Amino acid sequence: MNSELHRPFTVEYIGNNKQKGKLDLLLKENGFNILLVNTGYLGMARKGTEIELASRDLCLLTKSYYNKAHIINDSSELWVLSLNLNYLYQRNLVKNAPSFLIFLISLGYSKITLRSTDFIILLQWFKLLILKYGKHYRNPLGKRFLDRKVLFLLRELREIYFSYVPEMKTEYQYKYFLVFRFLQLVETHFKSEHMVKFYANALHVSADHLSKVVKEVTHKPAKECIEEKLITVAMELLGKKEPINSISNILGFKTSSHFAYVFKKHTSFSPSDFRRQGFVIP
């Protein structure tokens, strides 16, 4: 067994057909993979179902969906971020993982052809991760599933992903599309709309139904997904020395005390303590 597969995640650059075995191993053993195709063509198959990936395609897939790859030409060049789901679930780290990531894992498969600017942004993140880790990543992460730079990549991916309508192939398309639309709306309205009812009305479902489906897919209630986005942005603003009152206003809280309550509920720190301790974004 390849020792790299025991890591929380693996970042790989695959440059030609001779490295196809490396890609097959990642698809087979590491539960969730983010593929970014730079040049060339790549075919993937599972039980007679085939997809083709070409330049600027972003493909997100979970182990059970596609487990065999065929690099069609020798000039193919792609980047892979492969997450070890056994590491995630055996250590009960799901609650610490971003809801967007859990949504993608549950979805199983999606494919997007990126605009040039979005492709370049993600490509630079992959190159940065390769430079930082390559084959030398060995450090345990304790209670954290992912390194900060991987989380930064996922945040960038989230912003890009929700500006597209991805191709989705799944037996349960309705519930996944509902959660996709919910998270997409959160990305746009999280500062002004903190209540689940707003998103439920926009999606023409009841708040209870939306919360039930969101929790089924992301393992988190809809309200927690909204607050997760608020807290992530709050941390970024605290790191930029933005006044706490201003942060509270920017994020749509009625009072600074309510902002402090929600922030402490999610981080165990008040906003001022978080800033005083000099924490970096987790």
TrEMBL record:
The keyword Phosphoprotein does not apply. PROSITE patterns: HTH_ARAC_FAMILY_1, HTH_ARAC_FAMILY_2. Transmembrane segments: none annotated. Keywords: DNA-binding, Transcription, Transcription regulation. Coiled coil: none annotated. It comes from the Bacteria. The keyword Cytoplasm does not apply. This is AraC family transcriptional regulator. The lineage of its organism: Bacteria, Pseudomonadati, Bacteroidota, Flavobacteriia, Flavobacteriales.
